[in-house]
Amino acid sequence: MTDYAVMLATHLAAADGAQPARDLALQTQIPEPTASKVLKKLARAGVVISQRGAKGGYALARRPEQVGIHEVIEAIEGPIAVTECSDESTDSFCEYETNCGVRANWQRINLAVQRALSEISLADMAFPGAAELVSIALSGKDAERMRSADTQGNEVH
Amino acid sequence: MTDYAVMLATHLAAADGAQPARDLALQTQIPEPTASKVLKKLARAGVVISQRGAKGGYALARRPEQVGIHEVIEAIEGPIAVTECSDESTDSFCEYETNCGVRANWQRINLAVQRALSEISLADMAFPGAAELVSIALSGKDAERMRSADTQGNEVH
DNA sequence: TCGATATGGGACTGAAACGGTCCGATATAT
DNA sequence: ATATATCGGACCGTTTCAGTCCCATATCGA
What ipTM does this complex have? Predict the structure, then answer.
């Protein structure tokens, strides 16, 4: 799952050199075959590089601060964009009724999510202490409470 | 699916008063029972209010600009947060190895996504013309190209 | 050169979730 | 009070997804 990918990538970011899939699986307590599968996808997406053979393993393709979280997520789930209404053929109903601009707005939603995700790199995940980022004090646990404060203008970045 | 919810909510935002599920289904070309199902979830989540009986139907619970997209999405998919590693029991491995702060960082990811989604209201979806929002010219179709431009500081909202 | 080790790709299985359909309960209008 | 039209929840087929296993390939060390 995507969670696994983030965990593995984070551990990989904290590690020095290449790490075998087995070690990473142990560290993250992820079932070994599943971890391997996830790492393969990450490798195919270019997030990590693989070294086959003895003393092989996986290593981050770039420096941790150069790898955005969205890359990890997209490596697993494919493109983050979820356009459904835009099919060039079924947009007929969009015209006669309140010419809903869902298509362009979906794009905007996806873009907003992508931008939010791009703000966070693997370095931020692996070394949270070095975060010069968000000033929002994540005091407790409920992110629900946060939702009521989203009208304020504090920016993430 | 979530797309349906967004469409229905958007059409509802553009409509005046309460709309029967059947009419909304016709307008959006969504199978009627499915549309009804989606509307039920939206009603339970408090996004829309339901009026039973003859001449009943669904209406937006608040004004379109007061309803964030994330509410619609969460109404269908449940909480947007996806914390998996935080189980109070399995966080042992997080300590001995590079005390990974995945938990807090996942919260930050979720928060970032929520904030990004909160920036967009149903009013923005229903009346895209009134958008004083993004200056990004969504020229074509590929949101892929956009990803390379996310380092710029232009804000959504 | 040979063997040990570790990734890569694919096929297979089981389960959870999704889309979709149905009928019962309830409220409104006549 | 009755009829009508709606919401509400339970049910089912299908599909996707997480997870597992096997074999081919590539590299390092003896």
Answer: 0.67
